[in-house]
Amino acid sequence: MSRRRFDHLFTELCVAVDLPLPRYELWLALHEARRDPERLSREEVLSFCEVPLKRFLRERGLRLEGRDLGRLLRRLRRFDPAVPTPEERFAAFPG
Question: Region 20-24: what's the mean pLDDT?
Fold first, then answer.
């Protein structure tokens, strides 16, 4: 279930910077920051958004600061991996 936190982080980050980001490189950045993308806790996601995320974005010529960063953190903080997302709920409907 914690893998869902990585999926959510990736999706919200792409929305926040308004670009498709390299998923595997984000995965590697989490490993470099000594976090396991398969078993992320809320605290690990939020702490990753401090220095490691800024470095990840800077390497790609991107920045996320101020209100935009605050919105991202708020969405990440509110995410509950035990609750299906709207997309997952719709996907469960037959044909």
Answer: 97
